[in-house]
## 1
Amino acid sequence: MQTITRVALDAMGGDNAPAEIVKGAVDAVCQREDIKVFLVGQEDVVKEELAKHSYAEDRITVVDAPEVIEMAEPPVQAIRKKKQSSIVVGMNMVRQNEVDAFVSAGSSGAILVGGQTIVGRIHGIKRPPLAPIIPTETGMSLLIDCGANVDARPEHLLQFAVMGSIYMEQIMGVEKPRVAIVNIGAEEEKGNALVRETYPLLTACKDINFVGSIEAREIPHGGADVIVCEAFVGNVILKLYEGLAATLVGVIKQGLMSTLRSKIGAALALPALKKTLKAFDASEYGGAPLLGLNGLVVKTHGSSKAVEVTNSIYQCVAFREKNINGIIKERIIDTENEGKEDGNGI
Amino acid sequence: MQTITRVALDAMGGDNAPAEIVKGAVDAVCQREDIKVFLVGQEDVVKEELAKHSYAEDRITVVDAPEVIEMAEPPVQAIRKKKQSSIVVGMNMVRQNEVDAFVSAGSSGAILVGGQTIVGRIHGIKRPPLAPIIPTETGMSLLIDCGANVDARPEHLLQFAVMGSIYMEQIMGVEKPRVAIVNIGAEEEKGNALVRETYPLLTACKDINFVGSIEAREIPHGGADVIVCEAFVGNVILKLYEGLAATLVGVIKQGLMSTLRSKIGAALALPALKKTLKAFDASEYGGAPLLGLNGLVVKTHGSSKAVEVTNSIYQCVAFREKNINGIIKERIIDTENEGKEDGNGI
């Protein structure tokens, strides 16, 4: 008997909800048989949208969640007060093991707070990091942490490195993923206090393939597979990445459209150009997992279209099949034991 | 009588030394009469290069500096030991008021250390920030600080904001420059401890036009004129900016060259494309000033060509003519007095 992965999907989150979210769910269950989706949102709205599609009805269930958390709402308050929102209802389903994962394109802040307070951390995990995939010249890298927990400590970054490494190896199929820490120079003695204190912990960790520091300049070149940093820096990298890519593509488009001659050239070059730019786009890999939780929470872009939603659902299947949380539990316990052994001088 | 700005120029620093550096100096003195350049470097090498050009000989002086600081050398040690290097000799000339400014494309670390230890800080300035200009969709912004002094305190960032504001207003001609602090969300309560503590200081400062937080995504869109952050974050932004721009232009070129059809299109579109991409290039504004010193030190890109060198020399003229250091001294003293008045309850 085939095992089914059960995914709760926030039907109300993101700029293109509910249409693209619902379409993403329908596409997923039509393309694969090992998935069951729970569309969490305002029942009538979701059902109206679902009626536009044909699909196996036993594979999609609508779960009513009359409240909606807005993007601008203070996250802690929103999670506490809106018990009937799609985010709280979906996360409670993960907590109660009614589903394996929850996917949302909604408020990052609410997802991060909900992940920690409702779903809860794996025993031994100090902080759950948000780890988006970013595109590079040679493929993609995992940027860990881009969450909201700033002012991290060295032991947090060590756990991020271990979890990120497991994710890249198991889900992305990268053998012995190269782990690097974001720094402002290649030498070990460079960097701020956090980086200098974390560096030796990463060097000593046997569970990862630590390759040293990475300067931000090398990130787009694919200089490492797992890029470790604290959340403030991670956020800056992620958002600058998105903003600068959009700006440069805009500037180039403007250039291509500026003269008659260049317009003709652009028309000829466009199909090939679109193809290469598409390769520099990480949405095919799904959303950003929030790692280290008792279950899986995936944050997709606010602007997610159906294809990113579908890929995020597949990501949940891989996460469950590869038993990522089981491996995290083993390695984190190992790390703790290692620490104790060191302490005893064994 | 016209006043002359005297600039010491590191003839040995950067990837294109001495040829492009010497050319930059010659171009500067040929185009403007109010400049005198002191080319600091290995005398025979510099003189051989100079011999290839014709220029008014009383406007360029060669100053011998037999030692060279390599890019990979530990900065503190290099500055301490290599007293006859171009960086140490040039900075001593600023210190002794033999020149108004020193320009170098050499080791950033050595320039930052030398600036602080040889040239010295303006009385009251706690840290001299390195403030490169970065290109944006709408023009350019000043990113302050990108130096090597990490783990900054709120009062440092406040001084960066004041100095950056003066620079943008006086040198770049931006009226009431919009000052923003790099943050991971737009709300005041967001961010790490440093940002949360700095925010109210910036709000209270009457000398600047503080507009609040800026997310990294908005930087390339030109969301602020003066972008304040501590050096680790500034370094990440600057280097990711450079790395990602190079990667994206590379990816786009690859796309344009991938099919016969796209190659023809590219040939037609190229002139217009080059023109718009050139606008997205900050080298026309010169190098990055190290602000708050008793004199001026300018760091140009390691890959600087003659045009950036020439523009950096002009930047030194503007810096002196606009009396930037005089204004900094006034404002910093004002800030200190304000603090004292507050303390006395006046």
## 2
Amino acid sequence: MANADTLSVGLFGFGVVGEAVFRVIQQTPSLAARIVKICIKNPGKPRSIDASFFTTNREEILGNEEVNVVIEAIDDADASFEMVSRSLAQGKSVITANKKMLARHLPELIALSRKTGASLLYEASCCASIPVIRNLEEYYDNDLLVGLRGIINGSTNYILTQIFERGLGYAEALRQAQEKGFAESNPSLDVSGQDAVNKFCILLTHAYGILAQPEELPFTGIENIHPIDREVALAERSQIKLVANAIKLPDGQVAAYVLPSFVKPMELLSRVHEEYNGVVITSALTDEQFFYGKGAGGFPTASAILSDLSALRYRYKYEYKKLMMQKPSNLCLDVELDAYVSLNREEKLPAGFFEETYEYFTGRGFHYRKGRILLSKLMEDHWWKQDGVSLILM
Amino acid sequence: MANADTLSVGLFGFGVVGEAVFRVIQQTPSLAARIVKICIKNPGKPRSIDASFFTTNREEILGNEEVNVVIEAIDDADASFEMVSRSLAQGKSVITANKKMLARHLPELIALSRKTGASLLYEASCCASIPVIRNLEEYYDNDLLVGLRGIINGSTNYILTQIFERGLGYAEALRQAQEKGFAESNPSLDVSGQDAVNKFCILLTHAYGILAQPEELPFTGIENIHPIDREVALAERSQIKLVANAIKLPDGQVAAYVLPSFVKPMELLSRVHEEYNGVVITSALTDEQFFYGKGAGGFPTASAILSDLSALRYRYKYEYKKLMMQKPSNLCLDVELDAYVSLNREEKLPAGFFEETYEYFTGRGFHYRKGRILLSKLMEDHWWKQDGVSLILM
């Protein structure tokens, strides 16, 4: 930054997050940060603050030499990428929460940031208020991180909580999540697992130096969980949660996926209810560390953005230590897991889908099997993602 | 450091923590750290590693120009202070877990570290494996931190877990804690609350820029908790835990103490069992964040030391932002709290001890009151710390 003593901020977007960022910066004089301009799409909307802040012309931020920090709080991933990459190219530091954009473009953005020396921070992109990226980057920067397991999508966790703890059906639970603002009017990014896998790609970069595209990970969402799956879980005193999991294998490679999983009452993740997020970091030395907090919402997200802004005062940058300075890990699919697969119809599973099957159930027009599967099978075809099929890890 | 590419370590102490540090450094080649010398007190003890590592002469570390990092893992706080301050004075970076020493000498050590530019890190001193200091320092470095509440002593939490969940008596619970290595053969530092208040002083520095001596905080331990206190708690579906608490008041001052407290099942701290620690950080924006992990033991402590060592590779220093760059908060005792006070005998409370009493109980030779007390009353005399009196916050 030209002058670290003044953070002159250009803000893109004035939705729930953008407005919360604005309010918080106004209320935090110790930051010595100042909003110079706010770029919005729709000039007709009534706004709660002085009109002179607003512009619809992005050049008033991108082309403004006074602006040394760009905060990007818009939904559109393509527009986000353009603004973030142009800002970095000009040496402006950038703070973004756009996980979809980051999961797609992280390698080029890291290269750009290294080239111009501008900092790119995005703590708010994963688990909002939980400082998980900074902790992975700074504190677990050794090779002793054996596992990373988390509930990193608040909408699906809210929906599953309603289903498991309140006995609601999926449709009603989804409706309530939308009503409370935990799910978008188009919730497909959340319920398909896409949002969680986007975030997990970002976390894998900081945990293990892995730069993966979301398609490289087996993942699915919660849409196909059947009421009888719930009964099976409850009979075993478990819940079903959408779990992102990474396991470091003895050879140093990492198996990673985002899949519905049975979570037993003893597990730390069983304590993550409603729209909250939780991450369990397992290291060779300390057993389990648990980080828990609000994973979504305007102020939790603004809080993470604020911490990034504050870090810019000290010229903080992610160092991507595990990517740059150690030997990065590779993704590995050659791993066997215990899984449960249910079907709401009589149908043969593809030959060899299970390495070994050790439990069958048929009844009430419903069928399930339990056995060992190879993670790589989940990438070979997407048979298990179709309607009426539910795959849940055990 | 002379050369950040090589961490040449002098280690003081080869007990549980020291040996774990040694093992972990040997097993982590990516650290590029090397143990040069280990200073021990008792040369006669059989050791598991090559004798050439050891010396009983501290000058072989303090006077060794090759050593640029000193790791101090001894019990004795006075000897610790001497080694830490001499090392810093010579420009050697220091990593210590000695909370007793730090709580006593932090101001002078900070000054010394600033003078010579040597880094002093001590993540392991509080909550072992939970990176609470680094998070307070780096991530919650704004003025929006409204509260810090934690279980920060593993021994007492282990004892209280046995009493509350297994129905053991205090003496038997303490015996088991000692047997399992969670309490020292002289457990008074733990059960008196002294260890917890030492740690809390360190945390207050990083949370609020407060440099307090332990005596400035109202604190006590768990020795006087009476079996009927347990019954009262269980009747209200609560547990009693030793809680360190800091609340930022509307005027910016901070009320802080370490006292037994009733913890309701809804509270995050109710989930902290056995020897674990947990810290809840409340910020104005994110509600509650919860950090949970092992608070004691050789490897959890070594893990925190390892993270500090790793941070030294990047010349990391605590910046004490809230102390140096913002207006530090002050401790304040002018705050009313809800408290329960029980006595195992008929005795009048000192006049005016409660501002207001709203519940009395007498029966089975046991008496308790509930009411509002001023925190400052707890500093005026120590009547409430005597045998047979139990003060528990509600």
## 3
Amino acid sequence: MTTNNKNNFCVIMGGGIGSRFWPFSRKTLPKQFLDFFGTGRSLLQQTFDRFKKIIPVENILVVTNDMYASLIKEQLPELSSEQILLEPTRRNTAPCIAWAAYHIQAINPDASMVVAPSDHLILKEDEFLDTVQKGLEFVANDDKLLTLGIKPNRPETGYGYIQIAEQTGDNFYKVKTFTEKPELELAQVFVESGEFYWNSGLFMWNVKSILKAGEQLLPELAAKLSAGIGVYGTPQEKRFIDENFPACPNVSIDFGIMEKADNVYVSLGDFGWSDLGTWRSLYELAPKDADRNVTLKCDSLFYNSKGNIVAMPKGKLAVIDGLEGFLVAESDNVLLICKKDSEHAMRKFVNDAQIKMGEDYI
Amino acid sequence: MTTNNKNNFCVIMGGGIGSRFWPFSRKTLPKQFLDFFGTGRSLLQQTFDRFKKIIPVENILVVTNDMYASLIKEQLPELSSEQILLEPTRRNTAPCIAWAAYHIQAINPDASMVVAPSDHLILKEDEFLDTVQKGLEFVANDDKLLTLGIKPNRPETGYGYIQIAEQTGDNFYKVKTFTEKPELELAQVFVESGEFYWNSGLFMWNVKSILKAGEQLLPELAAKLSAGIGVYGTPQEKRFIDENFPACPNVSIDFGIMEKADNVYVSLGDFGWSDLGTWRSLYELAPKDADRNVTLKCDSLFYNSKGNIVAMPKGKLAVIDGLEGFLVAESDNVLLICKKDSEHAMRKFVNDAQIKMGEDYI
């Protein structure tokens, strides 16, 4: 693997405030900044470490929210200020990616880019990076929008799926459809068919192609941000964004472009990938004791207990007797105990906690 | 109520290290020093506040272990150093009470004394104090050992029982038998009989009588401690105790004297009393929400949860979904989650925690 290609850029999206790991993740310290498995590196840092093996470090950008600026600088001191794009307000992925594309275009109009979430887990790194490198070659000189599809190993209902059409190259396929998170029965049909792959939320394209697609499919967004051509990459860029970004439409790149464009391709792989979207997904991936209990960061003593996941700060001891299938998560001023499949209720917990206790508790 | 009688002394036993409220109570901060209900006063302080209404403050003594000296001084600044008797090592109640009796005898050979645990709850204070005052009058000039019996309101298996014999005065009865904690069936028979009362562990007698009983029934103990007559109440007392107390036999006042003496009486009452011996007893006494959940000190949000007791430090929020009949207790570096009736396992939890994590966790 080489980092020689100066045309290759990486955009890490690190602005999420996902509350699904509350209270372990907090508004002031979201998931991407946490080191769930005690490896010494947060998910964001792991993402950065991964891409810098194939992308020149100076070509790696992080797009995040203003409020996480200092956290990003603390966790990724290798980045210069110019490599951190700070959104003044939370929009969706399309405005975030469009801004990054205009920014990169100003630096290098011949650039290709890989866009990646900052909070996913990838266990088979070599295979992953090889696929990304081949993907960047695939899109470098062609007007193609490429996404990464993950070979499903179970009928997961928490992911979107990509249906593949005809093969157009070694491991590249045209995309037939994108589908939302399916019900279990449909998910089973998807997996058995061999035609459906998990949507990883990871994309590759050259800058010209994505900006062209934006002009055609999201003209309102393109109009807002193309007005800044000339200031991107200059000291005036941040002020332009602060003034114009809040007016951009709130739309995802999947809905706004990928599902509508006709030049969308998918590259397939099996990378030991997880979006770590829920406590349950974290549970599935983590090492388990003989009774299938998972302990993250803290210490634990289990009695008559099976299939639990416990996450507390380092140095704390959890003594648990008679629990089955529960999540026990504690951080700072909040302790949460619930069934580990009650992900749907998490938003309610967080809302109620905020109403009862205030901002300091979410 | 008056505190005029200079012959009346109170001995508060405050040396226990009970682990039954672990991790809420810790070896360095046992139950008697805790304010379970958030009233602003610990159980020890409540005990002191109660007795100072009928006993001259200078006649109130606390017997405790060396290691709690600073905690006692912090919580009861009204006490002079001479009023705090510091045991160099943990023995049982008989040596503790015998020392206190010799100490009081040196100050006032005509004294009577009430001996009380430091960690019990009493809700009906006036009735209690009235009974104690009458009890102190009852024993002042007679060779009688008096204990307090509590009218049982349920077939509690966690308490010892006192069977009464013939009445010998207004609310005073001869004691027929002391019994250990009974099985449930027997406890039900006890309660229905009307002859059995809970053993409160609270005693009254004059100093001469208890010392005489000790000489007769616990001669080894009496020999050890009577050797110090002449140094009690002097600056040499502490050194004498440090040298001789560790050699005293480890025996309870119940087993060593009350169950064997033939001049034992009981005074009956219903004082809203609890020895707060278990999380369950604390649960029974505490205010409950509509789903019978109890929250001590912290804040809580319950969903689909019934009959739980949650105790965490002030300022913490517990969010609990799907638990029934559990104890959730957290303090410092330990979180305990178990069925609230698994009191029997508490000692195992504490032992295992110590083995796995060390002294700082118990």
